[in-house]
Amino acid sequence: MAGKTPYDEKFAELLVKNGIKPKIAKTLAYLKERDEVKSIEIERDTGLRQPEVSIAIQFLRKKGWVKKRDIKKQGKGRPVHAYRLAQPISKIIGEIEAERKKMIEDLETNLRELKKYS
Q1: Of 1, 21, 25, 35, which residue is 20 to 30 A from 64 by alpha carbon distance?
Q2: pLDDT value, residue 3
Q3: What total number of domains does the chain contain?
Q4: With contact defined as beta carbons under 8 Å apart, do 39 and 57 qualify?
Q5: Which residues contact residue 99 at a Cβ distance below 8 angstroms, ignoring those fewer than 6 apart?
Q6: CATH of the domain at 65
Q7: What are the φ/ψ torsions at residue 85 (nearest 5 degrees)?
Q8: pLDDT, tens digit, for every residue of 35-44?
C-alpha cells in the first residue's frame, strides 16, 4: 500500500463520484488493500464509528462483495468477525460500471420521452 493513509483515499473518492456512499466507499477502499480485517481495524484506520462500519459491511455483504468469517474467542463472549473481499476488485468495479451505465441509459431514455412533450 502506497502513501501514509490506511486506505486508498483516491479510490474511495472515485467510488463516491460513481454513486457509492462515502462510508461504504471508505470501507471498500480499506478492504481492497488487505487480505482480511476485523471491524475494529476498519474503525481505527478509517475514522469511521462502529455503527457506520456495520452498515457499510452489511451493504457490501448484501452486494456479495465482502465475506464474513467468525473467529471464536477464548472463553465467553460473542465471536469476532473478520471480513475480506468476496471477489476481485476488478469484478466489483465492473459491477459498479454496469450499474452506472444502466443509470445513464435510463436517464437518456427519460430525456427522450420528455422531449416528446416540447
Answers
A1: 1
A2: 41
A3: 1
A4: yes
A5: 19
A6: 1.10.10.10
A7: -65, 140
A8: 999 999 999 9
**Which secondary-structure segment (H or E) carries 96?**
helix 89-115
Q: Are 56 and 43 a contacting pair, CB within 8 Å?
A: no
In a domain, 17, yes or no: yes
Residue 91, domain member (yes or no): no
Kindly report, residue by residue over 4-49, the tens digit of the pLDDT.
456 789 999 999 999 999 999 999 999 998 999 999 999 999 999 9
So what's the pLDDT on residue 6?
Answer: 65
Amino acid identity of residue 56, one-letter, is A
Given the C-alpha cell 475494529, which residue does it identify? 40
In a domain, 118, yes or no: no
